[in-house]
Amino acid sequence: MTSARSTDRTAATPTVGTRPMPRAVIVGGGFAGLSAARRLARGPVQVTLLDRTGVHLFQPLLYQVAAGLLSEGQISAPLRHLFRRHPHVDCLVADVHDIDLDRRLVHAHRPDGSDLQVGYDHLIVAAGVQQSYFGHDEYARYAPGMKSIDDALVIRRRIYQAFEAAEALPTAEQRRPWLTFALVGAGPTGVELAGQIRELATRTLTEEFRTIDPAEATVLLFDGGDRALASFSQGLSAAATRTLRRLGVELHTRSRVTSLDEHGLDVTGHDGATRRVDARTVLWTAGVAAPPLAGVLARASGAPQAHDGRVEVRPDLTLPGHPDVFVVGDLMSLDHLPGVAETAMQAGRHAARQVLHTVGHPDGIAPGTPFRYRDVGSAAYVSRGHALLEAGPLRLSGTAGWLAWGLIHLAFLTGYRNRAAALTSWLTTLAAGNRRERAFPTVARAAHE
Ligand SMILES: Cc1cc2nc3c(=O)[nH]c(=O)nc-3n(C[C@H](O)[C@H](O)[C@H](O)COP(=O)(O)OP(=O)(O)OC[C@H]3O[C@@H](n4cnc5c(N)ncnc54)[C@H](O)[C@@H]3O)c2cc1C
Predict the structure, then answer these.
(1) Quick check: do 2-52+94-129+290-357 and 137-287 share a fold?
(2) What's this model's pTM, rounded to 2 decimal places?
(3) How far apart, in whole angstroms, are the C-alpha atoms of residue 347 and residue 329?
(4) What is the pLDDT of residue 15?
(5) Beta-strand runs (E) in 150-216
């Protein structure tokens, strides 16, 4: 419920010399929003950065939080802290629910339930996407997805509690569903998480249980397509599949989930036969869709929406008829660009540079300049000592890919402290197989909130 109190942050624009500073509002402090804000912070622009969590999250390492390798603090950074030395950047925790393009107003809820209204001269919407269950939202209850810190901690709880539940049961038959982990979607997140579960079962937990043998855990990875990691070349995808099989992950391609409940799932294979899989831990690592904010923008501007709801933007990343409003990052749809961090960062910077032009900043580019994506490649972790890297003609797998993967992720992780902490955790886990980040909110606590 929202309170009647509301805050209007549209007044009192600071001035530089005799000209008032233009006001830019950014919705979302992810890769796109943070890159835009960092660019705008260089110029005389009053920036309000609204994010519902107040932290920048490095989503590519969420699966390591879920698997107990890293803590949530090691892959996130408070936005207020990042901009503490930029007085013209105001970071607010606020959940944006409406945008009035005619009156140039953003409407949000603050954490205490009060309403917030922020006016803008330029608006950059970088709210990302959310998990999609392909029309079966009821699956979310049984099979958490992985988009946020909350999701990662829920998955962490489910993984570690499954081993605890198995330990408490007297017969192998009763334990089996608890020691069966099913993942739906063999893209990078599904592959990474499947590998992590087998690794923690065969390395981390080996000496910790008295009744069960954690290494007996079965990890099933289902995908409707022909191969895992379909966004990578055939050769790299095949190398990853071999590694997964060596690790003990059972990969089932051309297999579609047809129903799902708290005891397991039904899967229809390529032969058309449906089989029941008893698995008490099912994780959803397939599909994304645009959040409701995309519909708000599309309806208000007449912009079309892609099949997954993302907003189709003009080549300069603006909404049709609204040169003051940019939609960037995962939320935008343009020329089938991939929904990856690099696209988001480049798009955020491109939008910000068009805004900087209005204040004559040397880094500015003329409004209307088309966005040109520079493909820097992609990487995916498979298991200890094995990762993939594909950048132009360069294709790496195995140890070479793994080292490259580590360097890239360290370079892009936000903040020196996070890099040092992540590196320390990785080295400790490599040396001792240990994972110390295993705390999670209990079910009772989560339900209470
Ligand atoms: C598990 C996982 C693994 C991934 N691995 C890789 C990888 O290895 N390599 C790679 O390149 N990409 C990877 N990606 C994709 C990459 O993370 C995204 O492409 C990137 O995060 C998109 O950036 P963005 O800024 O558009 O959105 P996001 O990073 O999702 O940021 C959106 C921000 O908006 C905020 N927000 C959302 N709605 C609202 C609202 N209504 N009001 C206020 N704030 C709001 C959110 O809190 C969030 O901070 C991965 C994604 C996931 C989920």
Answers:
(1) yes
(2) 0.94
(3) 6
(4) 58
(5) 180-184
